[in-house]
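Let's practice the habit of predicting before peeking. Look at the sequence and jot down your guess about where helices and strands might fall. Then scroll down.
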Amino acid sequence: MKYLGIEPRRPRLAVFEFTGCEGCELQLANKEETVAAFLGCVDVVEFREISSAKDGDFDIALVDGAISRDDEVERLKEIRTRAKLLVAMGSCACFGGVNRLKNACDLEAANREVYGDHPKATGPTRALHEVVPVDLAIPGCPVNKAEIERVVQHLIYEVPFQFPVYPVCLECKQRFTVCLFEKGQLCLGPITRGGCDAPCPAGGLGCWGCRGKAADANLTEFLTIARERGFSRSEIAERLSFFGGFEDLS
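Done guessing? Here is the structure:
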């Protein structure tokens, strides 16, 4: 695709998956109204969800999923050596995600109970940055496709981009969504980083914090309000620990 008669260089992009549901990768492929333009500005050299092709090194690696086995550690390190930029994509890659809940369990005992005499390789769940250096982290479960596209525009064309510093609550107000606390639900919207357009509260489900902690979140006041609304410490702790983005509080 030429612009002003110039053929721009398309960065080589690869997408990889580790422990997770691969839903963040589906986000890249499922937004039909922009997928052609998105794929037109990059040279996809490896992306198992959409192609069997594998074509050497790459400029940008989008990595989905958490690390939960020794072989994944080695594979991630190998990807890191080949990528100029490594981007953690989604809550599992950024925080460990739901998979991180298993770290509170006796993994050996659980392995024996589930698999008996044929145990599977497993270990504590880790986010990507706990294994290799990460250049950029894009949280969400799943990621917001529009945000991914803006990040790619930023990386390729140097279009200015900044992650939101406001909480999910602001986006609820913009959508005229009634506060879920007023409906008797626990919601992490006041302390969770915005940028998702608050689809969960709009659908009647309190925020579970998949995007991690908002900048300058008033955590003390949130905990006070949640307890005043009748939520137990265990309920609050369960919600905070679910995606791993509030591990220092849960």
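How did you do? Residues 70-82 form the longest helix (13 residues).
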